[in-house]
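// run 5 | inverse folding | seed 20
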């Protein structure tokens, strides 16, 4: 069984990153060479319009279009418990006023005619932790399954947590020593202090913090010391990564390798084929069934079809088999295509509640491996 390999291609009109796990491409990231990634950037913005009927607001942050802020993405320090014990959030008109300045972070890139989606619940990712200065919560990644290790990391996080805010211990922290985790937190706390200082001096709209580009972000978020290799096809990018690893991830420095030969690394490892497949609207299943993926600005719709598969038993068993196979492929495609937001899946109708429950449970299990939290 192969281990994990991170490929980075910086040759050509775009930068591309691929994560290969046990010989299978599980994540692909692409970014045009001239494109400036906005997600993760922190701005001092100014509220230009409050929409009470939609519980949202438009905020000017200095981009082509005003950014969109939902009430649910404001800090939750004004959440109270009602008489019945439920959480009560004040209407957005009582929390924001036109002309008000506030710090926001881009959560979703602009798409079509829509401006960027922003949040005031700031997150600062480090190597081992994600610092959340506006949230009072300490947690450990659900992908760390060993209860003893989870408790050890939780104790360390509480011991070294900044005086304000909360944090999530990342999967990469599994097995890390106390000094490394503490240093990560010190760095992120100092970074937040610097952002606040910049904000105090700046007039809105203003960019206060720019997140890492796709190459360094993927390296920070995906690479671990137990990987087989980090392979890059550009000498310039190799030198930049070497400096980054020496500074922030020295344990991973021996994994870095330059490979600019023929065939190109994305062809040699089969990633080009996977990219082509990820761009197709229809994806065939091994059984002969298929899924059709349609993305719009509002949501992603996925339709499951029987296709050429007619089965060998009764119709209910045939449908269940196709739906279960579709579940695995859908989970894979969502991660490969980096699809988020609202996703509607139209499975083939099943008559029996037992079959419906089996598909639901299979979907929950299949999505557990995705680092993005999913609500079904």
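// decoded
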């Amino acid at each position: 069984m192969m281990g994990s390999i991170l490929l980075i291609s910086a040759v050509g009109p775009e930068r591309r990153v691929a994560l290969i796990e046990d010989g299978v491409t599980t994540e692909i990231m692409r970014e045009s060479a001239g494109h400036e990634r906005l997600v993760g950037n922190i701005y001092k913005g100014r509220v230009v319009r409050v929409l009470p009927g939609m519980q949202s607001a438009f905020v000017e942050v200095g981009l082509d279009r005003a950014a969109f802020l939902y009430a649910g993405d404001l800090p939750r320090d004004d959440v109270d418990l009602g008489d019945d014990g439920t959480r009560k959030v004040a209407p957005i008109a009582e929390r924001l006023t036109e002309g008000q300045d506030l710090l926001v972070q881009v959560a979703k890139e602009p798409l079509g005619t829509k401006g960027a989606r922003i949040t005031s619940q700031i997150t600062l990712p480090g190597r081992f932790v994600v610092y959340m200065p506006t949230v009072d919560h300490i947690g450990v990644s659900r992908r760390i399954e060993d209860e003893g290790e989870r408790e050890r990391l939780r104790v360390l996080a509480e011991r070294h947590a900044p005086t304000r805010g909360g944090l999530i211990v990342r999967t990469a922290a599994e097995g890390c020593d106390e000094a490394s985790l503490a240093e990560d937190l010190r760095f992120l706390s100092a970074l937040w202090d610097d952002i606040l200082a910049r904000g105090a001096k700046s007039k809105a709209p203003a960019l206060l913090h720019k997140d890492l580009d796709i190459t360094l972000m993927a390296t920070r978020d995906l690479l671990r010391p137990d990987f087989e290799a980090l392979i890059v096809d550009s000498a310039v990018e190799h030198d930049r990564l070497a400096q980054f690893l020496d500074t922030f991830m020295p344990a991973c420095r021996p994994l870095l390798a330059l490979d600019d030969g023929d065939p190109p690394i994305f062809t040699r490892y089969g990633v080009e084929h996977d990219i082509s497949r990820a761009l197709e609207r229809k994806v065939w299943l091994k059984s002969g069934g298929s899924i059709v993926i349609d993305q719009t600005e509002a949501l992603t719709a996925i339709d499951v079809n029987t296709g050429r598969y007619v089965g060998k038993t009764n119709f209910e068993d045939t449908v269940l088999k196709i739906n279960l196979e579709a579940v695995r492929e859908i989970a894979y495609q969502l991660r490969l295509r980096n699809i988020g937001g609202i996703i509607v899946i139209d499975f083939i109708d099943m008559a029996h509640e037992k079959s419906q429950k089996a598909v639901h449970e299979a979907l929950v299990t299949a999505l557990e491996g995705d680092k993005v939290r999913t609500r079904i």
